Amino acid sequence: MTAGHDILSLRAGMEPDLQGSFSSSVIFGLKGYVAERKGEREEMQDAHVILNDITEECRPLSSLITRVSYFAVFDGHGGIRASKFAAQNLHQNLIRKFPKGDVISVEKTVKRCLLDTFKHTDEEFLKQASSQKPAWKDGSTATCVLAVDNTLYIANLGDSRAILCRYNEESQKHAALSLSKEHNPTQYEERMRIQKAGGNVRDGRVLGVLEVSRSIGDGQYKRCGVTSVPDIRRCQLTPNDRFILLACDGLFKVFTPEEAVNFILSCLEDEKIQSREGKPAVDTRYEAACNRLANKAVQRGSADNVTVMLVRIGH
């Protein structure tokens, strides 16, 4: 493996520079690939969405915006209904609420749009869930990447994650930059919110049952401080960025982000992967990287559903 494969490790507490200082009139092309494995679970409760270009659907757009893309992974629990609902509806709500025409601040309006979208999607699902007999108890994490030209807006709930692979010219190594924030009840701020709402955390879970402290659905825990308000981060893409990895915790139970990025890089440079007729070699390699990483997670003993999504950043 070449030195270029090595990961530049980021020590805990070190915040990577996600804003970047690069600006360009060239809009990077984005393309998503995915692989999913049921693993040892009885059913597949993950869901995902790849929308390489939703520019037309979002019109009329600000004159400052050229392209809009959306990628998301949802990890369901207690059933598939919440993750499926989020996969079908969250981007539809986002498109409806996306800022129309010129706005004073694209960043502020996009962030507001994401907050409103998550709230609305959760409310819609809870309304449907509570009207059933018996009421649905499904819930889901959500990790969404909304790309507005070369700016990524990452909105997430729960413990699925988004990682950016960025090449560092000084060290000549690739870094695995975390774009999302995990939410679990053992974290101080999350625990405090749950306790303030009258809930409690036992054995690292809300009321001793729920592993995440933010989610879509989970109606029975919403009164205990479990919220659908996502963390939203902003990241400026640079010419040194290779790909984005979105994956559920089924992957990260058996791979560190650095290991996963390393594994993907070695797949992308594996010349033994043959390109299929009529398909670009780069597509074949990204598809193979997704499939190999998902397979390896299952081989390593991940008992959970595994969803691996890669978003190639084209220059």
From TrEMBL:
One of its GO terms (cellular component) is cytoplasm. Residues 31-313 form the PPM-type phosphatase domain. Its cofactor is Mn(2+); Mg(2+). It is an enzyme of class 3 (hydrolase). GO terms for molecular function: metal ion binding; protein serine/threonine phosphatase activity. It catalyses: O-phospho-L-seryl-[protein] + H2O = L-seryl-[protein] + phosphate; O-phospho-L-threonyl-[protein] + H2O = L-threonyl-[protein] + phosphate. Keywords: Acetylation, Cytoplasm, Hydrolase, Magnesium, Manganese, Metal-binding, Protein phosphatase. Its EC number is 3.1.3.16. The keyword Protease does not apply. InterPro entries: PP2C, PP2C_BS, PPM-type-like_dom_sf, PPM-type_phosphatase-like_dom. It is found in: Cytoplasm. SUPFAM superfamilies: PP2C-like (SSF81606). It comes from the Eukaryota. SMART domains: PP2Cc (SM00332). Signal peptide: none annotated. Protein phosphatase that may play a role in regulation of cell cycle progression via dephosphorylation of its substrates whose appropriate phosphorylation states might be crucial for cell proliferation. Selectively associates with integrin linked kinase (ILK), to modulate cell adhesion and growth factor signaling. Inhibits the ILK-GSK3B signaling axis and may play an important role in inhibiting oncogenic transformation. Belongs to the PP2C family. PANTHER family: PROTEIN PHOSPHATASE. This is Integrin-linked kinase-associated serine/threonine phosphatase 2C.
